[in-house]
Amino acid sequence: MRLISQNTRLIGANSLRGDLNTISALAKGYAALIPDDVGGTKLDRSSLVDKLSSKLKKVRLVQITGLPGSGKSVLVRSEVQRSLEIGPTLFLKAEQLEGTGWISYAASQGLSGVSLETLLVEVGASGTPILFIDAIDRIEKSQQPIVLDLFRVITQSKLLDNWKIVVSLRDTGIEVLRNWLENFLSQETIETLPVNHLNDDEAEILAKAKPHLRSLLFGVQQVQEIVRRPFFAKILDQGYRGDARTTKFVPGSEIDLIEHWWLRGGYDADGKNVLLRQRVLLELARIRSRELSKPIRISQLGSVDQIDGLIADGILQQVR
Question: Is domain 2-194 in CATH 3.40.50.150, yes or no?
């Protein structure tokens, strides 16, 4: 079946159609949780897509690295969405994992009890034989066995020797990753794809769409290194839309930007709303710190008065 699938796309076994549909739906949903624009402007970083494709032709495992906010997850999102156009795609996102191994994860997502090897053979034959994992360095220890099960089957099964693995992680997470995946990583040749801040051409495209950011995008090098990371550019753009005086703010570091964001209650609050939003954000942070990979339930909060506003401002997302 694998040899046939290299030339002809298969539809998958009827008995596993439900599982394949579920896997595709999960991948689509997880990908949609990753913002891929700066205030409605999408950046064309096709050079990164080309580099990833080139590396996957040479090795089995590619790690996408970079500083926070540089666009690692967006690159993963674009690749997952391209794969979904072909067929079923297996995509795991750190904060969406449930269970203590593949079997319990599969059960929590409504998948059948079919063996992992059989399921991956079908995914690869009818879709894309690539395992995508976003923010692998943020996976909690209790959920790490889910990934270990996948790595073990993919690397040991002769039926899955065409499978590839793409993971994203922060620069600071590489050594942490080796602590629990060393047995697998030592057996594979690994390519690293660094995602850096926007280059001059990419920054120019954003500056044309967001003229109020131009002076920062092309300011002193220290400021460029912050603002040219898409996530931080988005925060500054949001602040400008809330209050045009934001253009007078020039961040000298990530801490400056975070402090500016915090003093406004996350985005554009003023007056007593700033304090109310700060209290909710602190409560959310306390709850999330106990279980980093678990979504926060509304019932866990003492007050929900500010939740709608935080969702509207893009600070929170509804995951279910």
Answer: no
